[in-house]
Predict the 3D structure of the following.
Amino acid sequence: MTTDTRMTEAASPFATRERSSTAWLWQAASGVALLVLLTVHMVAHHFVVEGGLRTYAEVVDYLRSPVIFVVEHLFLATVTLHAMLGVRAVLFDLGPTPAIERRITRWVTGVGVATVVYGVWLLWAVVR
């Protein structure tokens, strides 16, 4: 017995055709990764450092650690991926045409890439 994962009109009143997507798997995986990275971020910034990071200079100095620097980049990329997939899913729930779906996907991808590029540049500029 196989399970059909395609969305049909009966499953969603907005769906105009059947479609299959693995984007929800990526969003679920990024959600799990967010839980892990958020925990690492909170522990690293607030519990490992005695008294916590209190000043801008302390935060910048701490971000200069290669491990923390990589964790923060992963955190940024994962938050952005999760958010962009969520926005895309909400917009797809409105039942756009295939052409509009492609435009939505391109727009969301562009915004996500621009967000990560800006965040990486900003983090790099702060720690230099």
